[in-house]
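Many groups now describe folds with learned vocabularies. In that spirit, our science desk offers one protein's residues alongside their backbone shape tokens.
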Amino acid sequence: MEAALSSDSDVVPAAQVIETRRLLLRRPRPTDAGAIFARYAADPEVTRYVGWPLHQTIDDTLGFLAFDDGQWAKWPAGSFLCWSRETGALLGSTGLLFETPRRAMTGYVFAKDSWGRGYATEALGAMVDLARGHGVLRLFALCHADHRASARVLEKCGFSLEGVLRRYAEFPNLHPADPQDVLCYSTILEKSL
């Protein structure tokens, strides 16, 4: 089994701001809590297929930001907020959740008015590049078996379906305490030259 990083000195931090063609991805700040809450974290339709509970209050969002700060302190990166470079509006978020230095999970969530515009694909592509640049070998994502739009994003970014994990994960905004089937996607990353 691969060991976690032995000390903070082993971590090479990622840039806290990444620019893509249409997006500015930035590490969240406590001052972003209101926008996160209003744009997507408290929207029942947006959070239907995520693995975390709908935010009931701004304190829920602040709790997430505290958790994310811990990820950034331990690993090269954590979450990134996705902002429109054209309008400056918060569109959603993405990020990396490290299990080991060479294995990480990724995902994304976007406000309803951002759906169907290719933002998730663009943000996920940035996370693939970031993971590759920080030595991740296996990058994976899980999505609810019925969430076809999310599966399409993963496929567009070169992830392969490894299989269905039956009764694997709870979706607190869909069927609390009733594990659901999830699709497990992954991509194996080679170091960039």
